[in-house]
Design brief:
Blueprint lengths: L13 E6 L4 H19 L5 E6 L11 E2 H9 L3 H14 L10 E2 L3 H12 L3 H15 L6 H11 L8 H13 L7 E4 L3 E4 L4 H12 L1
Parallel strand pairs: 1-2
Antiparallel strand pairs: 1-5, 3-4, 5-6
Helix pairs in contact: 1-5, 1-8, 2-3, 4-5
């Protein structure tokens, strides 16, 4: 497995996207990323996409709990106002955040599925499906049977491997200095963090192509 921030050996521009499935900002960043990547490919530009795992709350429960209840503990009286603000941002990006349904749960198994899907050429599709499952469909992404179903939705052939490799990769990403998500590295050079714009990513890709 290549190290975070490295260039592609093939000469094809590489985007390395560090994200967490349970992170609102990762989903917002992914929506912008997906549109720019599709535009880039339509114009004939080659591109390699690599997803790197990150857990904002590594010890989140596998059994899951109401995300709204979690927000109430974290934000207190501001929880509802913050959710309304985030829901409005989501609508601008074509995302439906349903915080009343969402299940706060551990994302380790979800990241394992992303790695599995990436090995089958379906990483981007799987990431989008997991974000939607978490924030819109209100399913527990720590539950293996749920993940099996989501894998089947996308066409990923399920297996139970990869846990040890994922643990190593999570530690490697942390040790590289990344302590928040989303983070997007363009061809081992320019790094975009937080709420990048589509134009930010377009400019970074254009610099790689020129």
């Amino acid at each position: 497995m290549s190290q975070p921030g490295t260039r592609s050996d093939s000469g094809t521009p590489r985007l390395e996207f560090v994200l967490d499935i349970a992170c609102v900002w990762s989903y917002l960043g992914y929506a912008r990323f997906a549109r720019v990547v599709a535009e880039h490919r339509r114009s004939g530009g080659p591109l390699e996409v690599v997803f790197r795992p990150f857990q904002v709350v590594p010890h989140a429960p596998e059994a899951g709990e109401s995300l709204f209840d979690r927000h109430k503990r974290d934000f207190g009286a501001d929880a509802e106002r913050k959710e309304e603000y985030l829901a409005a941002l989501g609508r601008q990006e074509g995302i439906e955040f349903d915080f009343g349904r969402a299940v706060f749960a551990n994302t380790f198994e979800g990241h394992r599925l992303v790695a599995l899907a990436s090995g089958q050429g379906l990483g981007e599709t799987m990431v989008e499906r997991l974000f939607r499952a978490y924030f819109t469909d209100g399913v527990n992404v720590a539950d293996r049977e749920t993940l099996r179903s989501l894998a089947a939705d996308v066409g990923v052939v399920w297996n139970d491997s990869g846990a040890e490799e994922l643990s190593t990769e999570l530690a490697r990403v942390r040790e590289s200095g990344i302590d928040s998500v989303p983070t997007l590295t363009v061809n081992g050079g320019r790094v975009l963090t937080g709420t990048w714009s589509e134009n930010d990513l377009r400019s970074a890709l254009e610099a790689v192509r020129s």
